[in-house]
Amino acid sequence: RSANSLSEARKVRHSRPGKGQAVRCRPLSALQQNVSAAAAAAPAMEASTVDYKHSLLASREDYDKMYKRSIEDPAAFWGDIAKGYHWEQQWEDDHHTHNFDVTAGRISTEFFKGGTTNIAYNCLDRHVKEGRGDVDCLLWEANDPGTERRMTYSEVLAEVCRLANWLKAQGIKKGDAVAIYMPMLCELPISMLACARIGAIHSVIFAGFSPESIAARILDCKAKVVLAASAVKRGKKAIDLKSMVDKAVGFASRDGFEVEKCLVCHNTSAGGGKEATPMKDGRDVWWDAEIPSHSSECAVEWMHSEDPLFLLYTSGSTGKPKGVLHSTGGYMVMAGTTSRYVFDLQPGDVYWCTADCGWITGHTYLTYGPMLCGATNVVFEGTPTYPTPARSWQVVDKFKVKQYYTAPTLIRSLLSSGNDHVKAHDRSSLKILGTVGEPINPEAWKWYSEVVGDGRCPIVDTWWQTETGAHMITPLPGVFPAKPGSATLPFFGVAPSMVNEHGKAIEGPGEGYLCIKQAWPSTIRTIYGDHDRYETTYFAGFKGLYFSGDGCRRDEDGYYWITGRVDDVINVSGHRIGTAEVESALTLHPKCTEAAVVGYEHPIKGQGIYAYVSLIEGEELEDALKKELTLTVRSNIGAFAAPDILHWAPGLPKTRSGKIMRRVLRKIASKEESQLGDTSTLADPGVVNQLLSNRP
Ligand code: PRX
């Protein structure tokens, strides 16, 4: 880690002391070495155009004109767009303010001040009122082929109202947090929308997190009600989810917080009757026993534009996961607008986003954005490669999917299974192919374009983050050429700034840290309960800028190429994992005295988790201990955070002041020991040879 941004951050923060640690990032020279640096490998000028007519934008000039206005006059630009949604009360003329400069006061963003609306109303009631109630809203496909469920917009609205009434009957009111721990059932987006309808703040917890992680999230936002499911089947494996919730609720209780109600959806597709799920009297109730008796009408809670909509916890370089808070109006408008422009989504379009609602993509591009556009959403419970890699294309063919949105990791995994599974199925319904979550290597991009899309579907490689709430840098299909591996150009209202280590903007082509200069409607508003940490994490590093944590390159055409994280966050299969979290989980094991985690290049996952572990005197890293350590991480975070490689480190490379030199660890992990660089500042240079001789 360089001292650059730290010293800069300290200067900036001088006048506004706060808790937490300023942003830490790798020096620019390290960007090229980033394991996921697809961009660095790709020829900068290669452009790809397919014949696609965007329904709203005729040309690059249209984009340029709109983009210019969105940056110069965001209030007027977004005001015009927001008129396309229902507002119970109109916003004020000067509805937009923001401050991104920590030396100038509290960091804040406000859009549509004075306006009131409700996102669930805009997602559902609006379509029903405008005569689209009979359009399919959700097309659910179970893990095992052969089971599906269709729900129209009217049906989803009715179910949302019933659940909203149930929540109200439990005493949930505007501003209360509700935790949701469910697999991909229709009930998951329904739960989110029911919360939004009554102004409750939902906190969806990915149904792969361990009880400890669930408990931490319940405790942080004091969620008295948990919406859960009995179980899920992923591929061949059935997973009991309710017992995870029970354990989590027990942990919360140990820490002095009582969950009052747990509503459990019986997931029949996971197999097993209700008797397999233990229920606690007075606390746990079944969805199908409770919800049908509630009214299918429920008055909407009109929310102020800046009222909180949801919380979603995400990992950073330090400390516990952060509760990213998004507010109502700006998030709604940006979720809807990006969906409309980037996927060219129109009412009734059959759209499939393979993300889980437990992550931000499932919030913005499975639930809110597409429903704001009136689209028909495929909700897929299973694993896209089960029972065979052809499953994805069977589903595409069966539902006649028009826009398909997934992560590079799945594309790479499908690519490795050859082309036959793709070619065997009709994909002529596909019009637009999207990718998200990590840099896509040009090879995977080209396969996606040429094999999956038969060379006729534009690819939209969308760069954004949990914190940005919506697409930030992304192609617009048919509007300007794409380049394999590039996220291309900023979306309306997004003003990127590529800076050097001193925060100085780099103009023209070059390479630097990716920051954003001014607020966009779905800017993260705060970290729940810790505004100081919010300011330090995102705004203290570079004065006046939001710092994304990513590095990037900009080419001669102004196209952006995301090179990956420059902080201590690793991106495994598009899932963001803080190295510090994995390290603290490992050291919970009594035999592990210290751990250091880095990312390394993984052919399918993008990055894998490489953990160096120091053990108590006399212990060696044998298979049994490896299993125990892996289990410790699984049970403290979740299976997806389990290290791919464990490397016994009798000593870790540290500077004389005791800081671990991660640069050295990254080089050893990526087998580039010939490029270790200067190790003369190590307290004990012998440690390096010891690590090299110890390779797992
Ligand atoms: O490093 C970037 C990577 O994913 C990070 C955000 O992770 P998360 O908040 O979990 O949200 C993922 C879904 C939006 C970013 O900091 N990332 C996301 N999209 C891309 C990407 N990296 C390269 N290209 C992308 N298209």
From TrEMBL:
Its EC number is 6.2.1.1. SUPFAM superfamilies: Acetyl-CoA synthetase-like. The keyword ATP-binding applies. InterPro entries: Ac_CoA_lig (IPR011904), ACAS_N (IPR032387), AMP-bd_C (IPR025110), AMP-bd_C_sf (IPR045851), AMP-binding_CS (IPR020845), AMP-dep_synth/lig_dom (IPR000873), ANL_N_sf (IPR042099). Pfam families: ACAS_N, AMP-binding, AMP-binding_C. It catalyses: acetate + ATP + CoA = acetyl-CoA + AMP + diphosphate. Residues 63-123 form the Acetyl-coenzyme A synthetase N-terminal domain. One of its GO terms (molecular function) is ATP binding. Residues 581-659 form the AMP-binding enzyme C-terminal domain. Residues 134-519 form the AMP-dependent synthetase/ligase domain. It is an enzyme of class 6 (ligase). Keywords: ATP-binding, Ligase, Nucleotide-binding. GO terms for biological process: acetyl-CoA biosynthetic process from acetate. PANTHER family: ACETYL-COENZYME A SYNTHETASE, ACETYL-COENZYME A SYNTHETASE 1. Belongs to the ATP-dependent AMP-binding enzyme family. This is Acetyl-coenzyme A synthetase. It comes from Apatococcus lobatus.
